[in-house]
Design goal:
- By secondary structure, the chain is of the alpha/beta class.
- It folds into 2 domains: 7-53 and 150-318, Rossmann fold; 54-146, Rossmann fold.
- It contains 14 helices and 10 strands.
- The strands form 2 sheets. A 6-stranded mixed sheet has the order 1-2-10-7-8-9, sandwiched between helices. The protein has a 4-stranded parallel sheet with strand order 5-4-3-6, sandwiched between helices.
- Helix 4 (80-92) links the parallel strand 3 and strand 4 (95-101).
- Helix 12 (256-270) packs across helix 13 (276-288).
- The chain is globular.
Length: 319
């Protein structure tokens, strides 16, 4: 069962969003290659418009749904999805309302508002989802952050770019929030190369997928305690869980301290400033290194870079 997402959907998404998003760079890192004893490449998706992969899915959903200008779109986000939906709606002349938790960092709130969206703050991410559902019942079009075949297909276009730029890629290391990003990447990558391996990554305190895999069903987290707020989905869904079970080798959960250490290393040596939610891929690759040979071609997908300097300073003080 494909749960509504196929390689044809991903290829269709790529055609649909062409000109709306960037083909982001894929670069080799000699430093990380030496460090991990294999060939390491960085997919710099943090250079995507709005600073993360999220516009791919947002544009695909809105364009495929044929939502006319002056209509209403509603979404839920702790940060990156908010900016993506706000940006897509601004470009397409659509009104966006985004429900965001009160704990959302100020840089995410400011950026979302600057893209023209109406931001509504609520107590929790669960309350945000309830508010989105009510707006949808009232006639707005909801753009779910991860549990939507069109959103998943849009995110999967990252894999098509990677395999065009590096056809012999053997391993992709990908962050997991609600699971839509890794689900789309896995569907596309496995269709192009069934032998490729997809490795999922979460942080302690934002590990809804790892807990779901262990339980065999979605598990609702009582709270998100990780600093990697953009991985903070309260639970995954049956769709994203099934796609991970079918296509992903394993889900590695790393502590915040390892994600911060990886963030510092990437900034100092690769000269890119990532979110902890992206840097955790390096932390996971360190733990997975016994799975790679000297001939492996490993891609760390750096999915976002929307982090405030003040937050980075607080991470390093507390790590």
């Amino acid at each position: 069962m494909n749960y509504g997402v196929t390689i044809d959907d991903v290829r269709g998404a790529r055609t649909r969003i062409a000109g709306r998003v960037r083909h982001t760079p894929l670069v080799v890192s000699e430093t990380l290659s030496r460090r991990l004893g294999t060939n390491v490449h960085l997919k710099l998706e943090l250079f995507q418009k709005t600073g993360s992969f999220k516009p791919r899915g947002a544009f695909n959903k809105i364009l495929a749904a044929g939502i006319p200008a002056d209509s209403r779109v509603v979404a839920v986000s702790g940060g990156n999805h908010a900016q993506a939906v706000a940006y897509a709606c601004r470009e397409l002349g659509i009104h966006a309302t985004i429900f965001m938790p009160q704990t959302t960092p100020l840089n995410y709130l400011n950026a979302t508002r600057e893209y023209g969206a109406q931001v509504e703050l609520v107590s929790t991410i669960a309350e945000a989802f309830e508010a989105m559902a009510q707006q949808e019942r009232d006639g707005a079009t909801a753009v779910h952050p991860f549990d939507d075949p069109l959103v998943i297909a849009g995110q999967g276009t990252v894999a098509l770019e990677i395999l065009e730029d590096l056809p012999n890629a053997t391993d992709l290391v990908v962050s997991i929030g609600g699971g839509g990003f890794i689900a789309g990447i896995a569907v596309a990558a496995k269709a192009v190369n069934p032998a490729i391996r997809i490795w999922g990554v979460e942080t302690v305190g934002a590990d809804a997928m790892a807990q779901a895999v262990a339980a065999g069903k979605p598990v609702r987290l009582p709270a998100i305690t990780s600093i990697a707020k953009t991985l903070g989905a309260p639970s995954v869904t049956e769709r994203t869980l099934a796609l991970v079970q079918q296509n992903v080798e394993s889900v590695t959960v790393v502590p915040d301290a390892e994600a911060v250490s990886a963030l510092e290393f990437l900034l100092e040596r690769a000269k890119v400033l990532t979110e902890p939610a992206a840097a955790c891929t390096l932390a996971a690759a360190e733990r997975l290194r016994q799975n790679f040979s000297k001939d492996s071609q490993v891609v760390l997908v750096l999915c976002g870079g929307n982090v405030a300097l003040a937050d980075v300073c607080s991470y390093t003080r507390n790590s």
